[in-house]
Amino acid sequence: MSLFKARDWWSTVLGEKEEFDQGCLCLADVDNTGNGQDKIIVGSFMGYLRIFNPHPVKTGDGAQAEDLLLEVHLRDPILQVEVGKFVSGTEMLHLAVLHSRKLCVYSVSGTLGNVEHGNQYQIKLMYEHNLQRTACNMTYGSFGGVKGRDLICIQSMDGMLMVFEQESYAFGRFLPGSLLPGPLAYSSRTDSFITVSSCQQVESYKYQVLAFATDADKRQETEQQKLGSGKRLVVDWTLNIGEQALDICIVSFNQSASSVFVLGERNFFCLKDNGQIRFMKKLDCSPSCFLPYCSVSEGTMNTLIGNHNNMLHIYQDVTLKWATQLPHIPVAVRVGCLHDLKGVIVTLSDDGHLQCSYLGTDPSLFQAPKVESRELHYDELDIELKELQKIIKDVNKSQGIWPVTEREDDLKVSAIVSPNVDSVSQATDVEVGIDLIPSVTVKVTLQNRLALQKAKLSVYVQPPLVLTCDQFTFEFMAPEMSRTVAFSVYLKGSYTPPELEGNAVVSYSRPSDRNPDGIPRVIQCKFRLPLKLICLPGQPSKTASHKLTIDTNKSPVSLLSLFPGFASQSEDDQVNVMGFRFLGGSRVTLLASKTSQRYRIQSEQFEDLWLITNELIIRLQEYFEKQGIKDFACSFSGSMPLQEYFELIDHHFELRINGEKLEELLSERAVQFRAIQRRLLTRFKDKTPAPLQHLDTLLDGTYKQKCSMETFPVNPHQEIYADYKVKRRVIPDFSFQAKRPKHNFSRY
């Protein structure tokens, strides 16, 4: 708790479950009374616009009914509110409201009331602009040095600056390299816009450069811009601050100097007009908003910085002058003159707590009581200490050092993989060769101790392995209930998966007293699939292009014990060579040395070595664990096969490039194919048949080129060709009045 609390002058809570941000608060004489008294304008994301004029009877009073001048629902979310000279032909202040897809400018006026209810206020829409892009924020000022009016600049979510000269749209420009929009401010002294890009750089753009740059009809630069012959949008200066910015403010000392203040995530910076750092300050707490203003001392600046610790710090340059505590986390802070009280600090939280306060101290009335002095008896203290140590030692012996916590076994998930393949394969739509594709059944059991809601089971396997069903939903599970689901796994593609491990993930909600909707939780269970799902016994090969040798610290094990079912049992029960044939067609040979502690895996393709190597290591570890041997280890002493690995990457890259080229060529042929179809159908529907002018030959050639890149079941235009050939053979003269063919051409 801070000793210096903000003195509450007036406060209220806006709406229910509404949200606010830093652009939702503004202070100005919006009704043009001319008495110098500001009004508080607040807009919310729910679309409510409120205008307050606080008149507390005594300090700390809450809001009265007459304090709310106006409340109107604008339907669309309000992103930002600003007050300025936004209407042509007058220098009166008007209210600009920024929505996500619209900019509206209103005039606020009040009429004197004849009864005790007081004055009546209303807003009138002067004009609005419908935006083609989603807006993020806006700024205003006398762009280009205009006198007596303010122009508005809106930044969209895709980094476009849209300038509006009051009732008309001027131009739009894309900021170069924009990825995410940042805070935006306008400097009237240098006539430039200052923002912070997603590259964590403060960037300044001259208004004249924006006005004369190429129009932003397209996001991409034209070829003329790339060659440098066009007027490109060039940044005036940049400064890398190394962090994202929360807000930007520009404060002028006088007509000859101004400062750019940038609030970052951990620091705030003060920059000169040319982008040089005047000073910076590292913050101790995460900031939420700030407001710089001119100090009484000449040549210094004061800055109000709110943070997420409910504190408001006042800095004079880099020196902390005051710290005050707020009852909420401010997301926007302003200073104004309210009810003849100058320097009122107005803060707004994200949940709608609006407070007007001023700085001061409250006297602390708490006094610490006097401690009664007593004599210490050291002998009694020693006896008491020994008794406590004995109790602690007994507890540690019986229960351990750490307290035993209750295990949370709300749900247990177990998976059982069938050791044999299915008698009737569940494989459908496979893309493997002529081999019969086997499938394996997996059963997942859910056992819950408590009542669960919305339990959802999701099963994942590595492609090209696929599941007959991968999603299971249980709306409600009663206590002490067991559910079992079964599904099959099979190989769909013609290549090998990276691993044979599957994962069953269950997400569910556990009801509680505090949260009736339930606390979301996740539990998972992993399972291994058999090697016979993707591999069959094959003939061993003595020669191979790629070989890999694995060294172990134990005597070799019979491959028949490691891979039962992949070789017939021999007389001596020792099998030192075994062949594997993947369903895709490739072969791998595994050899075990009879004299040394080595295993060799060899294949014609380098990528096929991994799966058998991984399976060999896993099965060796399981074999020795069953024997009670815990110091088993595998090693590889040869050179790393990086050359083969890089060749595979290059080959994969070439396949990707060729695939993109084929897709482009196929798209071109498809466009050509449809164009020829339209011309042919026009000829066929014509009452007076005319020569095809080799359109049928061109259609056949285009179709054959498409068939070379993709598979068509049957030529869908054979009926059209046959019908047309019959017409030509029966009546060779094309000057007759023929009937239309009885075909439904719309289906083509």
Automatic annotation (TrEMBL):
Residue ranges annotated for the PTHB1 N-terminal domain, each copy included: 1-363
The organism of origin for this protein: Vulpes vulpes
Domain PTHB1 GAE residues, every copy: 437-527
PANTHER family, A to Z: PARATHYROID HORMONE-RESPONSIVE B1 GENE, PROTEIN PTHB1
Annotated ranges, domain PTHB1 platform: 530-637
Pfam families xrefs: PHTB1_N (PF14727), PTHB1_GAE (PF14728), PTHB1_hp (PF23338), PTHB1_pf (PF23337)
Sequence ranges assigned to domain PTHB1 hairpin in this UniProt record: 639-705
InterPro entries: PHTB1_GAE_dom (IPR028074), PHTB1_N_dom (IPR028073), PTHB1 (IPR026511), PTHB1_hp_dom (IPR055363), PTHB1_pf_dom (IPR055362)
Protein name, as recorded: Protein PTHB1 isoform X6
